[in-house]
């Protein structure tokens, strides 16, 4: 068992799922304050405005950089912020962040992993597998080992027993894993030189640990990143209660992702940008327990970037599923007089009688994407695109050219994505099995061979 959390006493209170209503837009908060604790004013805004609140791994100055170690007590740091939210509003569903692949050094769980080398993943030569992300090079949880699975589950379950945490956000739940083949239903351990037996045991164990985690927290939310359910992945209905689409953007692909989650009886968090096109996409595809969010994963404690006045406006329940015309235009009605449309050919949406969005000029062409130019190092560069899956690392980089250079220097990296919303890890690096996606505002490219 993990040691008793050092910061807070255990209190009674069963984990609870988030409240859901169409009275206003269902919204969630997912971020962190890398400079330290949130102010009382920020906590009050978070607690009063959002139904679901997740505090990220970057909370506090110890979560990012060379000083990260188990001495940071990241579990306690995140718990302290969630406690303040829960005390301000007991109805908020409070959610702890950890990663299901990367054993981040700032967590106390990492100290337990160091005690027994058999808890971490090894390749065919018996070497510990290392993967990059979140500003760190990390070992990997070996979920083929039942003891590793139990330790991972206890980290979240112990936090829910404090009464201040309802559930956990589990990053890299189905993608970005050491068995990632570019298809989230097929294991392949070639990239990290895993044996076939290790690959299969890890792949099945990764699914099992998420399923067992949900059972351990009962009604509390387990938000499994990108686990929308079959046929996208093997997380069948009932395995976990929520998914997240962290690359949500205006377009048919995001609409279908929302619909797939609803089809599999799964709540979903859609992390977007707050534009009318983005929100129209969400409203077209959203089902029961779909929540919208925006803003960076980390910052200096400013909460206002996660909120817009439209979120307070009356919405009303949908009249039914969206309909789609023969020319690719979706439409859907909400409440008394809210009407939403989305044109899949232009990726433009409209929302009337909600949000006070300006009507676009009927003949105005869409704004061109920011100019990007291929370089000798990166001969293919484009705007409004991203690569997903087959992750080989993340890193800071204020410009897309930084991602290009970092990918060229990274073994196994052939494709990269730059996205402002990924700050401080602007650059996401990918291997050859990654998949291309349309993502507004992102820039992606390949490196020369």
Give the secondary structure arrangement, pairings included.
Blueprint: E1 28-31, H1 40-49, E2 52-55, H2 74-88, E3 93-99, H3 108-115, E4 130-133, E5 136-139, H4 146-160, E6 167-171, H5 196-217, E7 222-225, E8 242-245, H6 252-263, E9 267-272, H7 276-285, E10 290-294, E11 323-324, E12 329-334, E13 338-343, E14 348-352, E15 380-388, E16 391-395, H8 400-409, E17 415-418, E18 427-430, E19 435-446
Parallel strand pairs: 1-2, 2-3, 3-6, 6-7, 7-8, 8-9, 9-10
Antiparallel strand pairs: 4-5, 11-12, 12-13, 13-14, 15-19, 16-18, 17-18, 17-19
Helix pairs in contact: 1-2, 4-5, 6-7
Highlighted features:
5-stranded antiparallel β-sheet, single chain, alpha/beta, 8-stranded parallel β-sheet, disordered N terminus
How would you summarize what this structure contains?
This protein is of the alpha/beta class and 449 residues long.
What report would you give on this structure?
This protein has 449 residues and is of the alpha/beta class. Helix content is 23%, strand content 22%. The chain has 8 helices and 19 strands. Helix 6 (252-263) runs parallel beside helix 7 (276-285). It is globular and about 65 Å long. Residues 1-12 have low confidence and may be disordered.
Major sheet details: 8 strands, parallel
- Globally, the shape reads globular
- Cα radius of gyration in angstroms: 21 Å
Task: Provide the succession of SSEs.
Answer: EHEHEHEEHEHEEHEHEEEEEEEHEEE
Please state the average pLDDT score. 91
Unreliable stretches (pLDDT < 50, length at least 5) are 1-12
Termini separation (Å)?
48 Å
Per DSSP E runs of 2 or more residues, the count of β-strands stands at 19
- The fraction of residues in strands falls at 15-25%
Tell me the strand order in the biggest sheet: 1-2-3-6-7-8-9-10
Q: How many helices does DSSP assign? A: 8
Derived from helix and strand composition plus strand pairing, the structural class reads alpha/beta
Helicity, in percent?
Answer: 10-25%
